[in-house]
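Encode chain A's predicted structure.
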Amino acid sequence: MAKLTHQFDVERRNGKHVAMLTLDLGDFEALSDNFSHAQGSELLQKMEQSIRERLRNGDSVARVDGNSFIVLLESLHSPDNAEKVADVLIENVSQSLSLIPEHTEKLGVNVHVDFFQKDDDYAH
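Encoded structure for chain A:
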């Protein structure tokens, strides 16, 4: 997480617009009770890889807090760009979750988008 925060600050100091997306897998913890620890961990790793594959080379993703991911999008032109990426990631994660037999009705993904322009204040 420290790497993401540092990268975020560098981008802003260089006058670039950035966005931070927070993806939460909803009730994954309740579902993971049906998996072994290894199976749940493997699923989350696959999801992180799937998210990473949908990002540009300069963007970053990190898994935090068990079933949440933080995505840093660099060098954006407008908030619409961040919203479009969020939509793609929601679709991608939803498709991945639909591959889990049974229990998929318990799962969903929530995404929060924070877009920062070069003049915005950000305190961490």
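The longest strand covers residues 17-26.
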